[in-house]
Amino acid sequence: MFDGAQYSREAWFDGAQFSGEAEFGGAQFSRDAKFSGAQFAVASGLGPLVCAGVVDLSGAVFEAPVTLEIAARRVHCKRTRWESTATVRLRYAMADLGQAVLPAPVAVTAHPASFTSSLGNTVDESSLAGYRDSVRVTSIQGVDAAHLVLTDTDLTDCLFSGAFHNWCAVGQLLIPRVVI
């Protein structure tokens, strides 16, 4: 359990194997939080956590249905694999989903208000004060987007190169996204 933990330097969980719940509710990272290559066997949730730097989940594997709640400047999910359904609720972040593997539905959404802890307390996001509070997806490069749902995210600078099955729902209308 890492609930409420405060990290004043980079936190490294690279390659960690979480065989039970990985509880980081209300955790505060003053710098980067690195979970590259971590395996989450049964974790049903990660967060809500706040990171003034990068939350790096590149190469991580989520084996069970999971909900991630992250307020951070950047979230890297390069080559991240979700074996089951996932909901990724973000605040402030620029999210890179390049080469992510999505065999099941994954929803990435901008969360409109501060997260609350399991005790109902508002999670402190003051380390992100002054930072643009919109969520931007910067890449879905190489992603089979058939199971990807993006909600309330800014795609202005998103890299779509190599993405496929990338249709965008606008109301009741499906339109193809531009592939550059």
Topology:
Elements (H helix, E strand, L loop, with lengths): L5 E2 L3 E2 L4 E2 L8 E3 L3 E2 L4 E2 L4 E12 L4 E2 L3 E11 L4 E2 L3 E6 L2 E3 L9 E5 L25 E4 L8 E4 L15 E4 L2 E4 L4
Parallel strand pairs: 1-4, 2-5, 3-6, 4-7, 5-7, 6-8, 7-9, 8-10, 9-11, 9-12, 11-13, 12-14, 13-15
Antiparallel strand pairs: 16-17
Describe the structure.
This protein is mainly beta. The protein has one domain (6-176). It has no helices and 17 strands. It has strands at residues 6-7, 11-12, 17-18, 27-29, 33-34, 39-40, 45-56, 61-62, 66-76, 81-82, 86-91, 94-96, 106-110, 136-139, 148-151, 167-170, 173-176. Strands 1, 2, 4, 5, 7, 9, 11, 12, 13, 14 and 15 form an 11-stranded parallel sheet that branches. A 4-stranded parallel sheet has the order 3-6-8-10, with no helix packed on it. The termini are far apart. Mean pLDDT is 90; it is low at 169-176.
Helical coverage, percent range: under 10%
How many DSSP H or I helices? Answer: 0
| Terminal CA distance | 43 Å
Molecular shape? globular
Mean pLDDT: 90
Helix and strand pattern? EEEEEEEEEEEEEEEEE
Please tell me how large the radius of gyration is: 15 Å
Low-confidence stretches: 169-176
From the helix content, strand content and strand pairing, which structural class follows? mainly beta
Tally of domains? 1
Q: How big a fraction of the residues is strand?
A: 35-45%
* Biggest beta-sheet profile: 11 strands, parallel
Q: Care to count the β-strands?
A: 17
